[in-house]
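Thread title: Can someone regenerate the structure for this chain?

I was given the following input by a collaborator and told the matching structure tokens would be attached. They weren't. Posting the sequence so someone can regenerate them.
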Amino acid sequence: MQRYPKTLLTFEHWFRSEDACREYLFRFRWPNGFCCPRCEHGQAWKTGRGLWICGQCGKEVSVTAGTVFSGSKLSLRIWFRAIWWITNQKSGISALGLQRTLGLGSYETAWVLLHKLRRVMVRPGREQLSGMVEVDETVVGGRRKRVVRGRYRGPFVDKALVAVAAEVRGRGIGRIRLRQMTRQSKEQIMAFIKEVIAPGSDLMTDGWVGFRDLVEMGFTHRPIVEEEEKDLDWVLPRAHRVAALLKRWLLGIHQGRVEQKQLDYYLDEFVFRFNRRSSRSRGRLFYRLMQQAVAAKPIRYRDVIKGA
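Best answer:
Regenerated them for you:
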């Protein structure tokens, strides 16, 4: 049974101490009771330091070991509050905003914390898009110098190319997927489609020659004929709407200051938020992100900085 706080008052009551946070994490890691990661023994006792000692092999186990919280100098109360604020701000929060909200000592601490959480927003083995799906590309950041017939030729100044896939749900948009591409090429767009869209889906694209192999890949393909390309915003409205919302989000929350090396993680955050935009409970989003943070492998500080 999912157990999550539904209001800020409930959140503050539940997680008023480090021990309360550890108990909550314990339920995520071992919902059926303690299991030693070394010998799989099911009995242990708790120490005064918040560790668990296996009753068979004597191994000391922390509830944060092997999770995204592992090795962090921040308290679990700070981590939990960060996850709460990230999931309760519908449009997101910047590192500066998080620093001010949590009273963190430095901007870098807030920035690293946010990037660690962005890295766990993609659930391993998530379902592929299906049904009718619109596929297109867009450019974000910087200034575009030259565009020829809807294809992005470059050279670009501080610009990134992003592949967009959006499910068609009546007149609305279902789930989406985004991926940064290093260049506009058939190989990269096909790899994106193969990874995020289930075979047999009905794909709507423009008339670019790079999409001609979709039928051979097991998809139904509805290319837009050359005469229709003058009004792509009308023909591919969902993909173009997602692209417009992405650009507005990057500009509004992050002032457009997103490095290309980190862009994929910002795209993951946008997808996480967009695909859960209709959730009735923000507390459930807290639960989902917490669930993925516990299931994720530890993320080292130097790996986050290295990608900056």
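The two ends are 39 Å apart (CA to CA).
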